[in-house]
Amino acid sequence: MAESEAAAAQRRGIKSFVVRAGRMGTGQIKALAELGPRFVLPYQPAAPLNYEAVFGRQAPVVLEIGFGMGGATAQIAQTLADHDFIGCEVHEPGVGALLKLIGEQGIPNIRIFQHDAVEVLEQMIPKASLAGIHIFFPDPWHKKRHNKRRLIQPAFVAKLVEHLAPGGYLHCATDWQPYAEQMLEVLGAEPQLQNTAESYAEKPAYRPLTKFENRGIKLGHGVWDLVFRRR
Ligand SMILES: C[S@@+](CC[C@H](N)C(=O)[O-])C[C@H]1O[C@@H](n2cnc3c(N)ncnc32)[C@H](O)[C@@H]1O
């Protein structure tokens, strides 16, 4: 079968993000300096994590891709305090913002990679190890010629699934209907995944409103959640 344009783009290393310059607030700068060494993990190729060593306990681990400013991540980590969370975000002010929340709220169960989640997944997350994966409001890449940058496409979803433990879940949400339809199609076509709902899912109670979602709602967008499980 011919390789799809999207799969070829991922193979060529086309990224799902563009690193934007963003102004760091003084609180974010302080949090990076003071809390970064403890909560930000260094990216290292071919170095699978030992979760127990990282978190100092045994608990189910959830990976989040693209936490933005981290408000939802901080809330979820407190709601699901018996889980440990690994958040990936390339936007430095977002990393600073989440560290600030970790410090202010004394959240022990989050670690951060300021690095491309695609590489973190491949190089540092052990296969079949994750209890869950959260991908909330990934960049929609609206323009047709940019669609190839979208995260949710067959080749990457197959990689995500490999890293889920059996029964582990993949929870995606978007406010962009064409992307929601793509998610439903791609996740539905992955043989190792089973939809937990007939089609789109009810928003799970642990997911609060995210910053990006709020922006979408103000623009009149709908919101679609999808929750699939590894068979
Ligand atoms: C549209 S924002 C949504 C942020 C947040 N989840 C929310 O709902 O408010 C998407 C975020 O994903 C990040 N991102 C995109 N691709 C990524 C990747 N491969 N690795 C890490 N972060 C990524 C971007 O930097 C951006 O902050």
TrEMBL record:
Region Interaction with RNA, residue ranges: 145-150
Keyword annotations of the record: Methyltransferase, S-adenosyl-L-methionine, Transferase, tRNA processing
Pathway noted in the entry: tRNA modification; N(7)-methylguanine-tRNA biosynthesis
A Pfam family matched in the record: Methyltransf_4
Broad class of enzyme this protein falls into: transferase
List of residues binding substrate: K143, D175, T210, K211, F212, E213
UniProt catalytic activity: guanosine(46) in tRNA + S-adenosyl-L-methionine = N(7)-methylguanosine(46) in tRNA + S-adenosyl-L-homocysteine
UniProt-listed Enzyme Commission number(s): 2.1.1.33
UniProt keyword annotation of Protease present: no
One GO MF term: tRNA (guanine(46)-N7)-methyltransferase activity
UniProt binding sites for S-adenosyl-L-methionine: E64, E89, D116, D139
HAMAP family per UniProt: tRNA_methyltr_TrmB
Function description: Catalyzes the formation of N(7)-methylguanine at position 46 (m7G46) in tRNA.
Protein family (similarity comment): Belongs to the class I-like SAM-binding methyltransferase superfamily. TrmB family.
Name of the protein: tRNA (guanine-N(7)-)-methyltransferase
Taxonomic lineage of the native organism: Bacteria, Pseudomonadati, Pseudomonadota, Betaproteobacteria, Burkholderiales
Gene: trmB
